[in-house]
Amino acid sequence: MKGIILAGGSGTRLHPITVAVSKQLLPVNDKPMIYYPLSVLMLAGIRDILIISTERDLPQFERLFGDGSGLGLNLSYAVQRQPNGLPEAFLIGADHIGTDSVALVLGDNIFHGPRFSDVLAGSIRDLDGCVLFGYPVHDPERYGVGETDATGRLVSIEEKPARPRSNRAITGLYFYDNDVVDIAKNLHPSARGELEISDVNQHYLERGKAKLVDLGRGFAWLDTGTPDSLLLAGQYVQTLEHRQGVRIACVEEVALRMGFIDPDACYALGAFQAKSGYGQYVMAIARELGAREPRTP
């Protein structure tokens, strides 16, 4: 499976903060926002990842990650010149996807929960069409909402329904088989002039090939598109990290635990950031898992 992070847009709801910097590079507590969706793809075992952003912002992502080899990844980059809807990611990334299935994650979504890597791996293993991820919310009328049968198969999708049939909002993480590229090519823009991800999902629904995985109790799904939600997300991460002594979405630790890099490589990544608490944490994890500290001359 290939991965795509859609990190474009102008972040107008966060102006003036995002006038000069990409929303996905803003800090969520102790790390850039994009670390969170990147860690989701890594937890799914995906190593070949395309980051899509604006022409202005893309060089900053390249400066942050390079080619991804330090994390055991193969990262590439592509420009989205205008925010023409989420399905455009499959058109921009068609060559990247090739003949594989694909996971799309939005660059401003944060996911955290127990055994998440197992949930993701199971969803990839059972992929037959598309897998969406649902999260219970108290205000489903603000979201795209999925209704399922007893097996988890989607039976209806409604966009911002006045009378929701369920409280499961469809999150910004999507798994699709390779058909999604052709589906996206044949979409017609909506009244807003954009391609709609709901139209893609509806196509799979009508074929009986859409499944909704309920993240449910114990998971957190956070959107960081407004100043309040950005602050709340940072506070959530800070509280958990302080109480549990772990760092959420530490991509160096994820790379190590997923077997993408070895402890010595992880230690070197931490040492590069050794003056920060984040870097010291990475070094400590690497030592715990067998890194050999370089001798000082």
From TrEMBL:
Its cofactor is Mg(2+). GO terms for biological process: hexose metabolic process; polysaccharide biosynthetic process. It comes from the Bacteria. The keyword Nuclease does not apply. Keywords: Magnesium, Metal-binding, Nucleotidyltransferase, Transferase. Its EC number is 2.7.7.24. SUPFAM superfamilies: Nucleotide-diphospho-sugar transferases. InterPro entries: G1P_thy_trans_s (IPR005907), NTP_transferase_dom (IPR005835), Nucleotide-diphossugar_trans (IPR029044). It is an enzyme of class 2 (transferase). It catalyses: dTTP + alpha-D-glucose 1-phosphate + H(+) = dTDP-alpha-D-glucose + diphosphate. It holds the Pfam family NTP_transferase. GO terms for molecular function: glucose-1-phosphate thymidylyltransferase activity; metal ion binding. Residues 2-235 form the Nucleotidyl transferase domain. Belongs to the glucose-1-phosphate thymidylyltransferase family. Catalyzes the formation of dTDP-glucose, from dTTP and glucose 1-phosphate, as well as its pyrophosphorolysis. This is Glucose-1-phosphate thymidylyltransferase. It comes from Kibdelosporangium phytohabitans.
